Amino acid sequence: MTLPFLRRAVLALVPLALLSACSSTVSLSKPETLFGLLEPYRVDIVQGNVVTQEIMAQIQPGLGRMQVREILGTPLLADPFHADRWDYVFTIRRQGVPDQRRVVSVFFKNDAVERFDTEPLPSEQAFVSSIDKPVTRKAEPNLTAEQIQALPKPPKTETEVRKQPQGAAREYPPLEAGRP
């Protein structure tokens, strides 16, 4: 083999080897992370009206449209082809918390609530705890008073050194001398 042929073969195989390495690293990590180490920040997305058990307890058959709007808010879906049905859809997407979606449908007859359909709704307290991000903190060591005293003291900073009085304390005369 000649040297130019070998050089051409190496130049052709190097890009292929690099491309195959890229495809193998993608399969090792989740698609939303960078090499399984870094996860990009995702903005919280909240859409719709939050409807809990306490809020739905206020909705009773016979309420008017305006009363329902005051309690639940403006419906997310008010279909002109189904004028007697309002749909309240709530979705939340938060990083580190499972996605949530709830749908409440209110049906009207003669501009009064006839019935409503909903899946089981959480209480307000359960809802807040379900969207709360778990905070991971490093475990702090339990130290005794003797262990705390044995810890080395950090060196004094320059500002702490300046705060200490230097030399004799000065006393200044009053700003205004006594007037006769």
UniProtKB/TrEMBL annotation:
Region (Disordered): 138-180
Stored InterPro entries: BamE, BamE-like, BamE_dom
Any single GO BP term: protein insertion into membrane
Domain of life: Bacteria
Signal peptide: 1-23
GO CC annotation terms, alphabetical: Bam protein complex
KW Mitochondrion (keyword) present: no
Cellular localization per UniProt: Cell outer membrane
Protein's membrane topology: Lipid-anchor
Keyword terms, alphabetized: Cell outer membrane, Lipoprotein, Membrane, Palmitate, Signal
Molecular-function GO terms, alphabetical: protein-macromolecule adaptor activity
Domain Outer membrane protein assembly factor BamE: 48-116
Protein family according to the UniProt entry: Belongs to the BamE family.
Role this protein plays: Part of the outer membrane protein assembly complex, which is involved in assembly and insertion of beta-barrel proteins into the outer membrane.
Assembly behavior: Part of the Bam complex.
HAMAP family registered for this protein in UniProt: OM_assembly_BamE (MF_00925)
Protein name as it appears in the record: Outer membrane protein assembly factor BamE
Species whose genome carries this gene: Aquabacterium olei
